[in-house]
Amino acid sequence: MATLEQYWELRLYVAGTTPKSVTALNNLYKYCEEHLHGKYKIEVIDLLLQPQLAEGDQIFAVPTLVRKVPVPIRKIIGDLSNEEKVLVGLNIIPLKPKAIE
Amino acid sequence: MTNEQNPSLLNTQRGLQKSPTGINGLDEITNGGLPSQRPTLICGGAGCGKTLMSIEFIIRGALEFGEPGVFMAFEEKAEELSTNVASLGFDLEQLIQDKLIRVDHVHIERSEIEETGEYDLDGLFIRLSHAIDSIGAKRVVLDTIENLFSGLDNQTILRSELRRLFHWLKEKGVTTIITGERGESSLTRQGLEEYVSDCVILLENRISNQISTRLLRIVKYRGSMHGTNEYPFLIDEEGISVLPVTSLKLNAPISTDNVTSGIENLDNMLGGDGFYKGSSILVSGTAGTGKTSIAATFANATCLEGKKCIYFAFEESPVQIRRNMLSIGIDLNQHLNTGLLEFHSSRPTLYGLEMHLVAIHKKIKKFKPDVVILDPITNLITVGSVSEVKSMLIRLVDYLQNEQITVMFTALALNNTLNEQTDEGISSLVDSWLLIRDIESNGERNRGLYVMKARGKSHSNQVREFIITDNGLDLVDVYLGPEGVLTGSARETHILREQTGIALHGHAISRKDREVTRKRKVLESKIAGLQTEFESVEEELNKIYQEEELKNRIQEQTRLEMIKKRKGIKGKK
Q: What is the band of B141 on the pLDDT scale with cuts at 50, 70, 90?
């Protein structure tokens, strides 16, 4: 698989501990463990603590997941509740394709 | 800027605090500026100056009113903005370095973004809040927030977030401008006006007769008086200028001072002193009657008195006017060198009427002349209807009267028949109206000038012949002979004939004088003869008298002698 050699560097921007950000973080960990075990790094940035970082990655909505590596940069906004969209957005080929719900 | 001149505006508006924009004229229309600590919507079609107006609000706020500002650009990058405003003479990069302005470019690239699940725009809030706090901003521009709609799918979230954003901005206490693209049926494409209810300004780029005019209108301004008309505005090297050109009152100050027309005989026709200062003068006539020459003479006379004059030419180039005027002995170049005279030449079709007015206003404001000349106003008809030209001139005259500036228009009359209500219908507007007519007789064409009206002046009712010589202009009396009005060579002949008459008459008089002298001489000599005769008679008489006396005395003596001899000494009496 081509994805085997790849490494995912993900960054999740949140604003404080809101239900949405908690959901997003939980979802992200779940997907990564499932599909990218051992090949990913997640960095969580709280914009309330580091507001100056928002400009660099062009963040305007939270939560936003940014795929830094592999390029090109992709952004997924929202609480990541739709697994399929997240996987497509991150360009991850799911290990076990799910049945269409 | 405007506000500093008129601080009372703010005080009278107790209910609503206003943030002056510093944009020429806009603060007058809005009666002090945009509502402080509230959002204002500027909407309009593409290329009508929304971004420019909002960035000028930020820059002038920082430079003139000490209010730093944040410019959040959804369309242009900071470098692009800097380049754009550099052409207006603002150094945006320097202002950013001085921490007076912060530009934050929000880049939304649809292809990079995937939406899944619930989200909010806290990221934007945090960025904005960070930008505001980092420089202590008082003003914010969001240009244009509608780009969010093209980048994001979830309209429900967007709309509720926008509502929250405007609420948050109000709480934050910043004066905000939001720009929005004009929609088909609503003011903005995304209906932003439903969130911004305090002040809405609509910009428009209207084209009529292939000429585009930028117009500004305040659609609403809650809690404040404001001008409701459409105001033309101009974007030039000094930014935006809006002119509230219609004044409703007729209470311009008046002056009893006079200005000379530069033609002595014309001044005499106007009661001896020329025109009133601050009055408006219309010179009309058919083609080639010397309207421009009168205007140039007036300009020359003004500058010779050390006053300033601005000359708007719509037909000829300044060089052409100067050359032509040299041929009648008027040197306008010297005044250009001393800076007393300024020429502005533009084709009427360069832009719309309103823009002409705005441009004229601007130049007058900058140059502060004593006299303004528009030559000719007739050409403006090509870019507007008669009624439009009239309303434009009314506003111009209105403004000039307020500023106590004398204005002279020239107008081309199209036919030779005297029409008392013609000339772009402005004859009722002007204070003085000089009419030059062609008088055609004996195979030649001559010019006749008369004063149709001169408000407040006991003006002459005479037609004078208007002559253009190498040494300037002059007016001479026309002659009314048995054949009618005499002008030109007929007048010259008449004058010659009269001069001959005078010579003959003079000769006759001198002959009579000589005869009188001669008669006097004769009489005088006669008088001298009589005098001599009288003297000789008198002497004769005197001689007899003296002899008589002598004889008496001698007789007396001899008598006394006789008595002495007879009686000795005793006889002495």
A: very high
Q: Do B113 and A54 touch (CB under 8 A)?
A: no
B186-211 average pLDDT score: 80
Instruction: Note whether residue A50 is domain-resident.
Output: yes
Nearest to B39 by CA among B217, B219, B163, B196: B196
Distance of alpha carbon B510 from its chain centroid, rounded?
58
Residue of chain B whose Cα is closest to the Cα of A80:
B116
B226-261 pLDDT per residue, tens: 878 888 888 877 788 887 655 555 666 777 888 888
Write the class of the CATH domain B258-477: alpha beta
User: If you measure CA to CA, which chain B residue comes closest to A81?
Assistant: B117
Q: Residue A60 domain-assigned?
A: yes
Q: Across residues B514-534, what is the average pLDDT?
A: 94
Question: Could you tell me the pTM of the whole model?
Answer: 0.68
The whole-number pLDDT of residue A63 equals 87
Residue A95 lies in a domain: no
Name the residue among A52, A72, A76 with its Cβ closest to that of B116.
Answer: A76
Q: Distance between CA B63 and CA B60 in Å, rounded?
A: 5
Longest dimension (CA), chain A: 42
Could B122 and A15 be called an inter-chain contact, meaning their C-beta atoms sit closer than 8 Å? yes
Q: What is the CATH number of the domain that holds A53?
A: 3.40.30.10
Superfamily of domain B2-242: P-loop containing nucleotide triphosphate hydrolases (3.40.50.300)
Domain ranges (residues) in chain B: 2-242, 258-477
DSSP annotation string for B403-436: TT-EEEEEEE-SSSS--TT-TTTTTTT-SEEEEE
Is the minimum CB–CB distance between A62 and chain B shorter than 8 Å?
yes
Is A3 an 8 Å CB contact of chain B?
A: no
